[in-house]
Amino acid sequence: MPTPLEEEIKQLIAVDGPLSVARYMELCLAHPTHGYYVTRDPFGVHGDFTTSPEISQMFGELLGLWAAAAWRAMGAPSLVVLAELGPGRGTLMLDALRAATLVPEFRAALSVAFVETSPVLRAQQEAAFDEVDAKVTWHADLADVAEGPIIVIANEFFDALPIHQAVKTQAGWHDRMIGADAEGRLIFALNPDPIPSFESILPQRLRNAQPGAIFEWRSDRTVNEICRRLLSFGGVALALDYGHVEMGLGDTLQAVRAHAYVDPLERPGDSDLTAHVDFAALVGAAHHAGVKTFGPLTQRDFLIRLGIEARAGRLKASASPGQMADVDSALARLIGTGRNEMGALFKVLALANSRLQTLPAFDS
Ligand code: SAH
User: Fold this and answer.
1) Domain 38-162+218-352: which topology?
2) Hey, whose CA ends up nearest to atom 16 of ligand 1?
3) Predicted confidence (pLDDT) per residue in 36-61, tens digit
């Protein structure tokens, strides 16, 4: 049985022709009734994937302390918005606020702004923050958050933003599209017309790519809005995600269901679609806007510099043997560099107003 979204996508293709990869990804994730994030809570053992804050409380706690130190570096403004893009179940922020009570002036200065498009996850966040003593607001877009000094945190947010893909042929670079074959199956296709002057936006070393090569990019809309706020009101932003530090070639679009990779064109709306974050593109957009960048560091280096090993030691000191093993395996998952571990694959990039001299974890 095709998914309801698959039927709708095939109709769109029949009427208007093939969709860009970005449009397809956007429909799969955010279609108002059938989108993946619109219809479910995807996290945890019984869900489709697990994220760092869901693996261990240590992650959100360290980010809360990082935010408190960043607030000091900003000159300790008396009011600051702690904004989280794509907060999932709200776990990171709950852990961050608990840790932030160690810096009472910061805890008193902050209000929380969640940027979330999923009604299911927003309802979960509302329930999780029902009893929390903090001002919390929800917004569909960062542009709707109150203006003022801001600390933005985005964990596994940018990877969920739609990517465009272009494919090299003898004739140039073409938008990669999604169409349907004679049997009505969704297939990848190319826009027959090359994208005019596409090569000129590529770094020099990617310009002689072989036919078949794929280049991916995302809209700079969100990073530009972050930069505008950092420049106008002061602040910092922290992006943590899986991705690459240098711009490169390759198809990184991936679909995950029940903790396994599946075909991105199969059962649209039923699996999580993501693609690697191009940290070089984020850095480029920030510099273009006049915003300073720190890192990217690997998640391993970032968390070790923030003291995750000592935090794990303290948690273990008051734990049962079973809990001690859980702390050890969570630590390995977050900072390990092996397969299925997040320490090397995940990168951490900070953006800041150029008046800001140092940031915790990025100085040493
Ligand atoms: N940060 C959380 C969740 C990551 S999953 C964690 O680490 O556990 C991606 C999150 O981004 C979800 O909350 C999803 O609903 C949200 N999201 C995806 N696209 C979005 C968009 N364009 N605007 C706002 N939120 C979005």
Assistant:
1) Rossmann fold (3.40.50)
2) 86
3) 988 888 877 677 778 999 999 999 99
